[in-house]
Amino acid sequence: MTALSPALPLWDDTPVTHRFGVAMAMHANPYSGELVRAIRRAARRHGCEITLADTGDSVSEEAAVIRALRADRVDGVLLVPAAGDEAVINGLVRMGVPTVLVDRMAGRNDVDQVGSENIQAVCALVRHLAGLRHRKIGFISGEEDMATHEERALGYRLGLGRSGLRWTSQLVACGQSTPGGAAAATAKLLDSWPSPTALVVASEAMMIGVQYEAHRLGIRIGRDLAIVGYGDMEWAGQVTPAVTTMAQPIEEIGRKAVELLLARITDPERRPESVRLAPRFIHRQSCGC
């Protein structure tokens, strides 16, 4: 039986207006805990409680978690979707359950969702590297069946085009959205021809693997290889060299997710919204400038 975390109580005696289920993989991303805290703060401001359920980033566990939350009679669901089948999302939409997809946005327009902007953000990272005279810019992509990573891959290609560079498959490798996968992808790219002089890394988790592999090979980040990433890990500003990255607006994503869910509960017939919030460029030393 799927376990649900108890509803997180309000700090004071404010009457509870709604109770939301938050379904997400607690250890899938380095910022998962930060996102939960952002949602919790936003919910409390509106007098709402949340019940947290860990999906394990598995489609089957996600389905079990959603069944448990519905049996617990939550008023709405905030869901960070697992990669793969969208059957759970389809079911929530079909049954009219107030739902907001959070962080990992899907390529559909029948459900509310909020996350970071991906295409222009990654495009800007590529153009930053091109502005430093890099002409062989590699890309460590994430899971191919996730809309978020498809958008980041599109941003990479867009950035190359706007910089007057050609896309080539020899400069792209899939890191499977994991540190281990990214380490293997980095080794593959650095051992190929043409070998990249710079890398764009599509997620925080994969940046760990890229850093590991570069150090294992004795490559000096920021000197032998420029690296930029998407997502600002806690350690990103503490390593040497510190990581140049696009920082996701986690606090704003949590706040907007709660607001969208409340709006859906208030007006079930309103048109679904897809909100993309701009990340913040943090310039550090890993890009070599």
Automatic annotation (TrEMBL):
The keyword DNA-binding applies. The keyword Transcription regulation applies. SUPFAM superfamilies: Periplasmic binding protein-like I. Coiled coil: none annotated. Residues 126-287 form the Transcriptional regulator LacI/GalR-like sensor domain. Keywords: DNA-binding, Repressor, Transcription, Transcription regulation. Signal peptide: none annotated. This is LacI family transcriptional regulator. The lineage of its organism: Bacteria, Bacillati, Actinomycetota, Actinomycetes, Pseudonocardiales.
